Amino acid sequence: MRTTALIVQGILLAGLAAGCARTPATSTAAAPPPSGSSLTTPGTSAGGGSPQSAGGTRQASSTASTTRPRIDGFKATESLSDIYFEFDKYELTAEATKTLTAHAEWLKANPKHLVLIEGHCDERGTDSYNLALGERRAKATQNYLAAHGVRTARITVISYGEERPQCAEHTEACWEKNRRAHFMLKAQ
């Protein structure tokens, strides 16, 4: 009888230990970083972060930082086109990787430019879910560029979730346009 009790206790402890090891993923652990490098953005440090920017626009912290990424001075560019994502996904499509490969080459040829990657979502889902998904999209984009030779110190990521739609209709064609990573540039 005592042996059975010990076996049951052992199984319960093993189950508890295994359950504790599985914590849900947070928005800061999106895509795996390339070659073990740390993905930080200019003006960030380790610690807790706030989802509010100075202008009142919510943003997801790029690396759980105590300071928010500086986004002033970034301007829209025609040099880097948007990439698009499938519904409820942050994995890069084949078309997106083709575009990002060209973006990486442009950024390496223009090293005096900093890039801001904005993560966007369609209107479906809660605000907090879409902010997290937008950040995962921006970080997946950042990771791809870093893996292709763009220094992460030049890249800032921000999520707007569903707050800045490119299209306002309630159709799939419109939602496809809103599920994107958008690029802005600033000269150093």
Description of the structure:
This protein has one domain: 2-Layer Sandwich (60s Ribosomal Protein L30, Chain: A), CATH 3.30.1330. The protein is built from four helices and five strands; from the N terminus they run αββαβαβαβ. α3 links the parallel β3 and β4. It is globular, with a radius of gyration of 20 Å. The protein is of the alpha+beta class. About 27% of the residues have low confidence. α2 crosses α3.
How do you describe this structure in short?
The chain is 34% helix and 14% strand. By secondary structure, the protein is of the alpha+beta class.
Distance between the termini: 73 Å
Task: List how many beta strands DSSP finds.
Answer: 5
CATH class: Alpha Beta
Could you list the spans in which at least 5 consecutive residues all have pLDDT below 50?
16-66
CATH architecture descriptor text: 2-Layer Sandwich
Instruction: Name the helicity range.
Output: 25-40%
Strand content: 5-15%
Q: Total domains, how many?
A: 1
The biggest sheet, with number of strands, parallel, antiparallel or mixed sense and barrel status, is: 5 strands, mixed
* Count of separate DSSP helical elements: 4
- The overall pLDDT average reads 76
N to C succession of SSEs: HEEHEHEHE
Task: Look at the structure and name the CATH superfamily.
Answer: OmpA-like domain
Q: According to CATH, what is the topology? A: 60s Ribosomal Protein L30, Chain: A
What class would the helix/strand composition place it in? alpha+beta
Which word captures the global form? globular
